[in-house]
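Input record (Table S2, row 371):
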Amino acid sequence: MNADERARFRRRLLTWYDRGHRELPWRTEPTPYRVWVSEIMLQQTQVETVLDYFSRFMERFPDVRRLAAAPESAVLKAWEGLGYYRRARQLHRAAQIVVERHGGAVPDSFEEVLALPGIGRYTAGAILSIAFDKPMPIVEGNTIRLYSRLLDWDEPVSTKRSIDRMWEFAESLITRHRPGDLNQALMELGNQVCRKGTPECTHCPVASLCQARLAGTQARRPVKTAKTRIEAVDHVAVIVRRGNRILLRRCGPDEHWHGLWDFPRFVVPSDVNVDSATGQRWVATQLRETTGIASTLRPADIAPIAHAVTRYRITLHPFVAMNPRGRKRNGTPSELEWLPIDLLGQQPMNATGRQIANWLQAPHDEERSGA
Ligand code: SF4
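Output record (iron/sulfur cluster complex):
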């Protein structure tokens, strides 16, 4: 697009945006803190899912100072179910830095915002443009799709060359005139009109400026690289119960659910069948070696739980430890604790741990859950 076309593009896009866009809580009151929290939550997560979490999070931690002063477990608890918990830990750490180094005010310089944990070039641009009205470009999922179509970009969008081109294009679009609104309009257009699969070009305010539309290639843009191969794996989780207490482990720093509680859990090698007596002895050995608790095992009365973590499609088989004996081992493989069953609801847990905990807390025959 030349300068005239870009000016036309901005006018049309902002007019379309002003006629009606989704009312979102971080848009109606775009303070730097609210925009920041919303942007972190929206990484990897749909707007519809974020809405409830955002409201609850703002009630619980209404400003940076309140967030910085909270224990990490409280932040993880508020984040429970949103996934990608590293985001929550980094947000918490960044809030502490904002309080320590910036007097509790989110900084308005690109370098200082970018230096905060969990904030990359996109998030810094979003915070500065939306909350401070600075002319900073943005490139994220929705806009990559939109830009690749506007440019009719025929290379895989994940390469460095492509990403550089997207940033260059985004920079050419942004000016000092309403940069925050323009960025939100770009994301809104990508999300609502220039959708995945078949875009709604007949409702697009910038259709006459779109190269892919002119070439008829919209459905083939963006060009994707080959998908990562999904791998199926089995895990087991063991419910170890003594009276009213359950043995749980807090995941360590190198683990996916760092800081969250989970049941003792093991990856099952492909040559072990956990439905067999041999397989269950293997689970018992893992339990004894990692926790110090000796026990025979039987499958719990919960169906295996299917879930996905990064490129793994996991089937989790819950087991119950029968008459567990011995003292829990401290320090390996991560923190082990006997927690009262009625307090499980207050601890941050990963999604499958929460499913099992809910089953344990539901009224049923205690013998079935290993009591
Ligand atoms: Fe996307 Fe179609 Fe608009 Fe082009 S014309 S930007 S493909 S919705």
